[in-house]
Amino acid sequence: MNARDEQGFTLIELLIGSVILGIIISSIAAALILALNTTDSIGTRLSQSHDAQLFAAWLGADATSAGPPHGAIYTRTGTGADGTISSTGCGLSPDPVNDQLRLTWQDYSTASGATYSALYRVSGGDLIRYFCTNNAVTTTVNVARNVQTVSQVAVTSVAATGQRVIKVQITDVVSGQTYQFAVAGVGRKTTVVGS
Predict the structure, then answer these.
(1) How far is residue 166's CA from residue 71's CA, in Å, rounded to a whole number?
(2) Domain residues of the chain, as ranges?
């Protein structure tokens, strides 16, 4: 008798291979489904975090510029500030409900002595920064999207330095996810501590 060279797999080997392949494929599919389900959530959180960072960058620079002796801070309520927002300082009509914060300052480093103003206004669910030179809007920047509320705009003074701290608390809501953040800006020192 001739010994036949048998090639191929036995039925048991095929069954074991199929089971192992099924386990591997189902693990990969579960990981892919999980990744796809969390992508929207992560994207939303990143977007909201980006809004907080962007707003912090603009508010910090504006607060420093609006520090004394050549600046003023106006809020919707006027608490701790130089007053309420009775005019926008940007040639825009005042909006007592949506205007949140206005910072103004004078530039004495040039002969023209330009007046600058940064107005933060909620419009269509977005927080918009209007930057104005000599009472005319020169740029607008969307600093936060999907704003549900601006729950606090507070101005406090640091007695030892004369600095004023501006704190703004915002609530974003995107796809049912709520994200609250507070941003603060600090003005320049106005008094010399120690000699």
Answers:
(1) 13
(2) 36-186
Tokens of 23: 């386990």
DSSP strands (E only) in 5-82: 71-75
User: What are the distances in angstroms from CA 75 to CA 56, 78, 98, 99, 120?
Assistant: 17, 5, 11, 8, 10
pLDDT in tens, 10-57: 899 999 999 999 999 999 999 998 888 877 777 777 878 888 888 888
Range of weakest confidence among 26-35, 39-48, 121-130, 164-173: 39-48
Residue 121 is predicted with a pLDDT of 92
Provide Rg for the chain, Cα atoms: 29
C-alpha separations of 32 from 19, 28, 35, 39 in Å = 20, 6, 5, 11
Q: In what order do the strands lie in the sheet with 164-174?
A: 147-157, 164-174, 177-186
Please state the pTM of the whole predicted model: 0.73
